[in-house]
Amino acid sequence: MPARTSRAPSDHEFSDLVVAAWPSLYRTAYLLLGDHGQAEDLVQTALARTYARWGSVRDVAAAPAYARRVVVTTATTWYRRRGFRGESPTDELPERAHVDGPVEERLDLVAALATLPRRQRAVVVLRFYEDLSVRETAEVLGISEGTVKSQTSHALDKLRAALPAALASLPTPATPEDSRA
Amino acid sequence: MPDQLTDLLHADADAVRVPAPDPAAVLARGRALRRRRRAGTALVAAAAVLAVGAGGVLVGDLLRTPAPAPPVAVADTAAAEAYAANGAWAIGDEVTIGGDETVTLDDTVYYLAQTSAGAVALLPGDGDGDARRLVLVRPDGTTADLGARVEAIELGAEVDAPYVTWLVPGDGTAEVHVWDVEADREVGGGDVPAPGLTGEYSVAPDLVGDALVVDDYAGSVRWLRWRTGEVLPTGQVPEKAAGVRRLSQEASADGMGDWIVVDVATGEVVRRVERGWESFASLSPDGTTLYLARTLEAGETAAVLDVGTGVEAPLDDVSFNATWTPDGSVLGAVAEGFSVCRADGCTLWRVDLDPTDRNWLLPDVANVG
């Protein structure tokens, strides 16, 4: 019969995970929500949920990926349950995110992202920031692959319109998702 | 594809000021969440189980005590008996029921629950909305797409009833649904006061006959007569609660309180078990046996414990987190596959489980990954 797997990771290892994974998870959360306070709350919530399953973790290396998945699924839950402020997209770009120094101009894209409807925003973040495939994105968001493709196409249209100079080289939205499916 | 967009997103994200993490605060929230979760995951109706002649030897025999009556009440067929003995599990979009019958569904399984009618899989939505879908996988391998649309991430179920439950958090209220998976219709539910419910996460309600219990996240539980929607006053329990036991964790500032099995009707602690440094516990469907995996000073242990006598019997071939088959054997996952352990040893179904993927699911346990 198989040998037992190793012990469950310790609280100390979990604290190490929090420190190591926090910056990356926070950036994903911020792109999904467009708000620093909510992003921090989301990452804390996701990591707390990860800890709640900590006793069943047998491979610490797999934990960051799990936490990332929890960030995304929790964000989609918040979209539904919190009357999320991004529920109704606006045509106006919001105030720029708070950044340090000379990189501020870069955040036009983050601001444009915040104008997208929540699902389109999530699709863009998952596919082009997290580099998930169409199928993986569909799985995480709980929607069909066809919906992922159509939402990607609509989102790219809007981003291209909002930032014509920066995104001029993006392909037309005929089947922009195919090469990443 | 637009790698340009990817590059821009990473450049923008890298420029975002990231606040410093607070591991202690995250740990505190995680411990509180785990206490809530564990308090709500193992309610059983010891006095209300049904008996069928499923045969086989139960884990209870390891303790040299009379085997409890198998609680599952499915049709008397070989498939039903196999399901009762071996339970169900999932890997990705594949659900295996009874040990040998594997069904491929149309999407990845998020959560798996065991009912008297078979295993119920929670799947992603169908594109018309975010709500998730349910598919019933019967013991004979046939499936039925159910009409329910579920805004929840886990289900509640009893192995001796054809129902699943779920909870949608509101502002201080738990919106509870009960779905009959055989008749494929909602048969009850209601709104239960839950002043401590924040909406971020909640465990599914536990069924006890015609009643169910919801954690109010404020230190207590509330009972709902789900067929009528009547919420019982705080502290009042339904008649069905007589003999019902609940697995909980004793409150403590450090989250390390003992495991306790509580008689719901009287509040009496009928069994207290040292929790250990890290542990997982699950109460059997009939409420007589506790599965315990603990990390103690002497090392990691896995055992079944007779709730009545406190006698432990070690188990060697199951995973840290494990669950129960409908007839009361321990079902776990090991490196080589899924293992069902009973008095006469463990049966292994060899499956190539990628430990870094962890897309496998045990019923009634939301695995990592």
From TrEMBL, chain A:
Gene Ontology terms, MF aspect: DNA binding; sigma factor activity
Keywords (A to Z) from UniProt: DNA-binding, Sigma factor, Transcription, Transcription regulation
Name a biological process GO annotation: DNA-templated transcription initiation
Q: What InterPro entries does the database record attribute to this sequence? A: RNA_pol_sigma-70-like (IPR039425), RNA_pol_sigma-70_dom (IPR014284), RNA_pol_sigma-E_actinobac (IPR014325), RNA_pol_sigma70_r2 (IPR007627), RNA_pol_sigma70_r4 (IPR007630), RNA_pol_sigma_r2 (IPR013325), RNA_pol_sigma_r3/r4-like (IPR013324), Tscrpt_reg_LuxR_C (IPR000792)
Domain of life, per UniProt, equals Bacteria
Q: What SUPFAM superfamilies does the annotation carry?
A: Sigma2 domain of RNA polymerase sigma factors (SSF88946), Sigma3 and sigma4 domains of RNA polymerase sigma factors (SSF88659)
Q: Which residues form the HTH luxR-type domain?
A: 113-167
- What NCBIfam families does this protein map onto? SigE-fam_strep (TIGR02983), sigma70-ECF (TIGR02937)
Q: Which family does it belong to?
A: Belongs to the sigma-70 factor family. ECF subfamily.
The name this protein carries in UniProt is SigE family RNA polymerase sigma factor
TrEMBL record, chain B:
InterPro entries assigned to the protein according to its UniProt record, in alphabetical order: Quino_amine_DH_bsu, WD40/YVTN_repeat-like_dom_sf
The record ties this protein, via SUPFAM superfamilies, to:
YVTN repeat-like/Quinoprotein amine dehydrogenase
Q: Which sequence ranges are marked TM in the entry?
A: 39-60
* Listed Gene3D superfamilies: YVTN repeat-like/Quinoprotein amine dehydrogenase (2.130.10.10)
Q: Which UniProt keywords apply?
A: Membrane, Transmembrane, Transmembrane helix
Protein name from the UniProt record: WD40 repeat domain-containing protein
